[in-house]
């Protein structure tokens, strides 16, 4: 017999999960009640319990859905080769990190995710950085630096670290985007194209 967390996600359950993401983001896991979740999606608490037996089960399903959406959005942005590489990187980071700027609950949600689901966000980070490196490689960004030490993987790691820092330090999504545009611009230019400090 399948457990509830491994059961297929039907359209109704998926709609509930998608509707609960913002509520978990706003209040965090600990402060969110099933009443809060039911209200946020226009259901009675009883109707919510018919689909999910408890808050933990719903949270686990929500984490899985968030990871799936982040992966799809990041890959879609990076894969659009009709756009310049800087635009693709900007859109990918906005999809992956931009929407979570300004939430004080983020650390608590990530910690709870690790405890309940495992290191799924860490695993996503590794995959996303590999996707970034591939896009940078194909676009020839590392070659512009003319150094064997500057690899696409190194540039991807630097951009990802910048994004994580700006996500926590930016006061708004627009500030985050502006700072990431600067970081992306620096990475995508060769040293000869950067302004001289002399």
From TrEMBL:
The keyword Transcription applies. The keyword rRNA processing does not apply. It holds the Pfam family TetR_N. Keywords: DNA-binding, Transcription, Transcription regulation. Residues 10-70 form the HTH tetR-type domain. Residues 33-52 bind DNA. This is TetR/AcrR family transcriptional regulator. It comes from Actomonas aquatica.
